[in-house]
Task: structure prediction
Amino acid sequence: MSITNFSTGADLSQHGVPLTKVTMPALAEMKRQGKPISALTAYDYATARLVDEAGIDLVLVGDSLAMVVLGHENTLAVTVDEMLHHTRAVRRAARRALVVADMPFGSYHGSIDAGVANAVRFVKEAGAEAVKIEGPRTELVRALTEAEIPVVGHLGLTPQSVHRMGGFRVQARTDDAIRRLKAGARALERAGAGAIVLEGIPREVAAAITAELAIPTIGIGAGPDCDGQILVFHDLVNLSFAPAAKFVRRYGDAAALFHSAIERYREDVEHRTFPSDRESYHLPAETHPPADRDDADAVVNRDALQDLGEFGRD
Ligand code: KIV
Result:
């Protein structure tokens, strides 16, 4: 195939507006140009569509889905197969955003070969464009880079280390911890990581790492000086059923919206006001006199439903 046929980085269009696919090298270019990188998690087709259509640069299929989607206490239980399932759904929705899959606990903590094999599954079977791994695992990052798999590192408060850390606690508060964190960030960059998520660390430490590295840093609870920011989708829209952490800003209240919609639906069902006649299908006019029916609305319904085959027929 000629190089001119490759579609990576090509212009797509959405609502008539040209879109340029975000790639891993594009993130580095954004850092060089001083353009902030927006990132958000998504775990399914619907939320990924919304995230992508809103122009978010990077969508992470985070293992936080163990907590916010599957109801676990922490991220440790989610499996490779579950993460693959959600990554596929997100991949189908994302047209512009870079799709990064989180490698779950246990999938890269054994041999390097096993870690590479699991990462290959995310690219090959689910369409991920990069994988994210927690901790300064430089040997693995080097092996993944050699296997042509872009890597996002993750340092600071790494949720898969919850038991070692003794809870979800802010990290890098002592001189020694700051020194180790900075060394880890430098080592990840040298090993080939394309970006690093910095989570739950003092602003000053994140700022120093961001200034030192050529690759972008993406902060969550790491202050405003990172090259980009990421939040968990469910925190952003109040769907996480937990008190918000200090660093979370809620931009919407989906819980209130959904509660109200669901309650109104239940009330309508209980009062037999849903569905109405206009929301019902009817026999043909010849066998059922028009006096009983609202024909104009039936036509509107037919038009709206014409693509739905059997369901569209009145
Ligand atoms: O799993 C996740 O959502 C994450 C983000 C918090 C960065 O790793």
